[in-house]
Amino acid sequence: MATHSHEHGSSHSHDHNPTNGNGTPHGHSHEILDGPGSYIHREMPIVEGRDFTDRAFTIGIGGPVGSGKTALMLELCLALRNEYNIAAVTNDIFTREDAEFLTKHGALAPERIVAIETGGCPHAAVREDISANLLALQGLHAKFQTDLLLIESGGDNLAANYSRELADFIIYVIDVAGGDKVPRKGGPGITGSDLLVINKCDLAAAVGADVDLMETEAKRMREGGPVVRAVIKNGVGVKETVDLILSAWKSTSGYSVSRKRWAAGAPRGSGEQPKVVRDTRFPRQ
């Protein structure tokens, strides 16, 4: 048991290497958070030494279970695939359900989608031990010479976020069903992401949420960092999200790598595209 002090001046003890409740090791350590985090002082993308010829610019999508991460993955694939060479990695605890959803709905050709079964805590696979995801992304890039890579974490809590060794641009998705309180709770997902998406805004009245308040609180907690209101299943907020991704990518040397490939004759887009299958209950806007 480790004892240490925090800024509030008191000392206390807790286990930095927790167990699964039966005395067996949990498998990885957890970061100890002393506050809700800061957008301005968040962990920034790696610039020095980042080799985009080894792995393309990577967009990491995180958020609680059911917030709309996979729906956003689908919309981003459809928005980017014709002009840019992309591929995707999904994370589930014990299934391949998210990858199967993307394949079923024609997001990309099946060979461009890799599913990782994380087991245990899904945040560990995108922060503490990123090896499986990193290898999957590198493998997709080596196979397809991608411009952009997308990765979706398994559903987790507000304390979960990506390692910058894995994601160059981090999107965190919450939804109105969690209530007005979610943005002001803070945590690495809320404050440390490059973009916060508030999804399912069309359901606000049904669940008693105030979207204006959520956006105000989100911008306050994020110190002015970007926030997008969305109804992802209807396409609302997708263009704004794509624009922010492309702006971030074009500010890196990863964009220069792609431009050199295009100048050398590399084809644009993501190859032959499967037919898109949409749920007709949700009209596009």
TrEMBL record:
Q: Which Gene3D superfamilies match?
A: P-loop containing nucleotide triphosphate hydrolases
State one molecular function term (GO). GTPase activity
Instruction: Give start-end of the signal peptide.
Output: none
Residue stretches in coiled coil: none
- Which positions fall inside the CobW/HypB/UreG nucleotide-binding domain? 58-228
Per UniProt, the keywords (alphabetical) are: Chaperone, GTP-binding, Nickel insertion, Nucleotide-binding
| Domain of life of the organism encoding this protein | Eukaryota
Keyword Chaperone part of the UniProt annotation: yes
Basic and acidic residues bias: start-end ranges: 1-17, 275-285
Record's family?
A: Belongs to the SIMIBI class G3E GTPase family. UreG subfamily.
- Name used for this protein in its record: Urease accessory protein
Specify the species. Capronia coronata CBS 617.96
